[in-house]
Please model this.
Amino acid sequence: MSETFTKSMARNIYFGGSVFFFLVFLALTYHTEQTFPERTNASQMTEAVVRGKLVWEQNNCIGCHTLLGEGAYFAPELGNVFVRRGEDAGFKPFLQAWMKIQPLGVPGRRAMPQFHLSDQEVDDIAEFLKWTSKINTNKWPPNKEG
Amino acid sequence: MNIANPHLKFASQAVAKPYFVFALILFLGQVLFGLIMGLQYVVGDFLFPLIPFNVARMVHTNLLIVWLLFGFMGAAYYLIPEEADRELHSPLLAKILFWVFAAAGVLTILGYLFVPYAGLAKMTGNDLLPTMGREFLEQPTITKMGIVVVALGFLYNIGMTLLKGRKTTISLVMMTGLIGLAVFFLFSFYNPENLARDKYYWWFVVHLWVEGVWELIMGAMLAFVLVKITGVDREVVEKWLYVIIAMALITGIIGTGHHFFWIGAPEVWLWVGSIFSALEPVPFFAMVLFAFSMVSKRRRQHPNRAATLWAKGTTVTAFFGAGVWGFLHTLAPVNYYTHGSQLTAAHGHLAFYGAYAMIVMTLISYAMPRLRGIGEANDERSQTMEVWGFWLMTLSMVLITLFLTAAGVMQVMLQRLPTDGTALSFMTTVDQLQVFFWLRLAAGVGFFIGLGCYLFSFKRRGQDVLVGVAAASA
Model:
């Protein structure tokens, strides 16, 4: 690098640039916070949704699945599983049945453990996934398959 | 025998050694679990239900994080005294924290392996302050608290050393990066009930670590090794370092936005995240220029050619893994189709290996011969073995990345691009990708062999021992 560009100039760009953009980041975070209640339908976050999130977390579901595209990439996306599996009419019965028959025991197929969840816990997860499917995700995923 | 190591400037730098050794043991564990998962990708019920995929993945990623943290800490204990030109504030504290951190790490991994996760959550009182069950932050809350305690003790120790000693740019940048690492980790205790908000702040740990403050740590470690092996004027090196970290933070902080496209955050991030993260390759490219121009301007031919190779290699691999492979899917219109596909996995592997695994191995390569009392460099045969390890691991990781990229492109074509009705389901899609996953597994075996060569290069042969004894008695 040329001699006219000195170390102290580089240092000033580092300090000034990082402080400035960190402040911009905070401003954008403030803006994001303002939009969350509406974009996530926070008013519909029932106690069941909150309990369901905890069941989701305490069984490490993210270790295989993705949720809104984040997680492991070993098992299907569940952010829109409510839409994929029956919506209001069919999703809860589907999930109850699905959780009970795991593992499927098909040789060579990726296997999901049996988590021994109570009916209440499965219902809570269902409520959590239903609420999740209604978050405004800028239209992601592109189709029902997630 | 209690002979001071003549190859260390300060005796207290020796505390770095157990950190490096333990880091490499954990690295070996990480790769073994990677192989288990690679096999589970093609034989879905392999080791089921003994080690379900979610457990193997948790062990694989957590071991990665922990071994890199051990590597960073070892690097700090080695370079901070040398830069500050004084002994470490408290070598005893560094030794105690080593055992605390190692014990906490081992217990946590054993917990993952032998207790069902829900049971682990119950045992450790996750209900009281729920922080578990989020990707990479799966550690029980009590382990997270332990990490904070270790980090505070560690920062106190190197901070005191720095305060009392010479303050160089390299040590200040290293310190800033490590403080940032600890500060952003605190967000792991914030787990809002609203999933979108949870995900938003989760990235304050994950992104602001790997595409933020960790780049400061990487830059400082790289600069330190380059000063040592090239003998280039410190002023020049430090100017480069400032340019690199300036670019890293200017692009990387707002670049966090590329994770906010589809998780419930507002549309503004589609633009802001795309633009800033598209510039994130710049600091990595600057690191390539930095390493190669310092080596070409070197004032001495350092006998440790392996360390020179690692220093150059980490910048190039990080540029491709973090820079190019990140850029490939960082623009929102592209990411709409690739988000959470095998392309993400491809990028993650080459980026972490290139930037962080390799920078730790760069420092280990430079420092370990001295820490072991061998001298500036290992003998030729050991270095040749190390260079074999470098190439086998690096090329294998490039292949893993290419196979996962191919799998990801195909996944997008089968599962994401078609409309409802014609798109294949996830499970049908992965069946179509089997051949790529088999090839990836083969490349993983290649990586394991490379790691074997690398670890074997540390084997001390009879001749070395004699040289060591001769040096010690001279």
Notes: Chain A touches chain B through 73 residues (CB under 8 Å). Chain A has two domains: 1-39, 43-146. The first strand of chain A starts at residue 66 and ends at 67.
